[in-house]
Design a protein that fits this description.
By secondary structure, this protein is α+β, with helices and mostly antiparallel strands. It has eight helices and 14 strands.
Length: 432
């Protein structure tokens, strides 16, 4: 009986010790992992439930029931926790529709994170651009970058982290040394009695105090950079790319351009009636106004084209087209060489300071020279052209001679004067 009582007492003691050890282990796990008792109990309950479900699923043959019950991962320590001083900087370029509205949106995006606007430079116009300097806490650095990237289309992003721990330690050490030196000089100055020594000590003290303040300023600058991450946000608007495409074709006959566009490969005979077609399309992303079309190759000037489709005086929106025609007679050596100029405008019709590029697709055209014998009409035309050329030459010669007609007249008058003078000198004088 006595042996049984001792055995029961020993078992009770072992149970108490085992319970205490289990409690200590649980407490140690909680302290090491950073979880409170409620989190540990919840995790344990969830693990038990999951394990039961997994076993049940395995018993039923469900392969997807193999769930993990691993403990949650601990978050990575921050540089401050590791005793490091890190300066975070980033430059992010975003393309937006309106830089002013996007700048306001960026400030609102980082405001909940305590973000501060330290500077802003905005330029409006065709190449609108806004540069914002934003500072946030290092722990909010990545979150701020994500929010800013969401206000438009991300074009470029560069992030850097500079470890300035050694620089901070060096400055702190130099500051301590400089402070000790300043205190020593102040002690020496308080004990100096000779005027010369006082002046020398004061000059040296002033220099060392200046050096000390410079070191302190450098340290404050670095500490400020470490405490607030810097984000340079560059906002840009899409650059307008105006461009025109001109496709030139032709066909035989005159019908006010109704058959435009014609063929890109055609051969004419000299003297044939021919119509040249010009299909002008706005292939850029900007509206165009003040279109001016010319073709020096066939002698077509502005205002001489027939408008087949569209309005030459209206604004040509992107993907819109304009078809013009020019009626003439086929002449050897005269081939189309169109040139089109326009002004790029915005949605309000305001001219933009951007150049309009033009691409031209010329047709393969040729004119066969008339080699038949000339008839009466051809001879008459040739004679008339000959008369015109002779008359033109005569006019040119007369124009060259007329400015010098005064010269012969002057020479004649001079000759008459000399003759009279000679005659007068040769006449004998009367004798008394």
């Amino acid at each position: 009986m006595k042996f049984r009582t001792r055995l029961l007492a020993l078992a009770a003691v072992l149970m108490i010790v085992g319970t205490a050890c289990s409690t200590d282990d649980a407490t140690s796990t909680t302290a090491a992992g950073g979880y409170d008792a409620f989190e540990v109990a919840t995790t344990a309950a969830a693990t038990t439930t999951t394990s039961g479900a997994a076993l049940s699923g395995a018993a039923e043959g469900d392969e997807t029931a193999d769930l993990t019950n691993a403990a949650p991962l601990e978050s990575a320590p921050t540089p401050a926790e590791l005793g490091r001083s890190i300066v975070y900087t980033a430059t992010i370029e975003i393309e937006v529709a309106d830089v002013i509205a996007a700048g306001n949106a960026a400030q609102q995006a980082v405001a909940p994170l305590g973000g501060l606007l330290f500077g802003q430079e905005t330029t409006t116009g065709p190449n609108a651009r806004s540069i914002l300097t934003i500072k946030v806490r290092p722990e909010d650095f990545q979150e701020a970058l994500g929010r800013l990237a969401g206000i438009g289309t991300l074009v470029n992003q560069s992030v850097s982290a500079s470890d300035v721990t050694e620089r901070v330690v060096d400055l702190q050490s130099r500051i301590i040394t400089a402070e000790a030196s300043v205190e020593r000089l102040r002690t020496f100055l308080s004990q100096a009695t000779v005027l010369k020594d006082v002046a020398s000590l004061e000059a040296e003290l002033l220099q060392r105090e200046t050096d000390l303040e410079l070191l302190r300023g450098q340290l404050r600058t670095i500490e400020t950079a470490v405490s607030l991450a810097t984000i340079i946000l560059v906002l840009t608007e899409p650059t307008p790319e105006p461009m025109l495409e001109v496709v030139q074709t032709a066909y035989l006959g005159h019908d006010d351009g109704q058959a435009c566009p014609g063929s890109g490969e055609i051969t004419f005979d000299e003297g044939d009636l021919v119509t040249f077609c010009y299909e002008i399309t706005n292939v850029g992303d900007t509206s165009l106004a003040d279109l001016d079309v010319r073709d020096s190759g066939v002698g077509a000037k502005s205002g001489e084209f027939l408008v087949v489709d569209g309005d030459l005086a209206a604004v040509l929106a992107p993907e819109d087209r304009l078809i013009l025609a020019f009626e003439t007679t086929a002449t050897p050596g005269e081939y189309p060489s169109p040139s089109v100029t326009a002004s790029a405008v915005d949605a309000d019709g305001t001219a933009l300071r951007v150049a309009v590029a033009t691409t031209t697709d010329l047709g393969s055209l040729s004119v066969e020279r008339d080699t038949s014998l000339p008839g009466f009409t051809d001879a008459l035309k040739a004679s008339w052209h000959g008369v015109q050329r002779v008359f033109g030459v005569a006019v040119v010669v007369a124009g060259a001679i007329v400015p010098f007609l005064w010269l012969p007249l002057l020479l004649g008058l001079l000759a008459i004067w000399l003759r009279r003078r000679t005659t007068k000198a040769a006449k004998p004088e009367p004798q008394d």
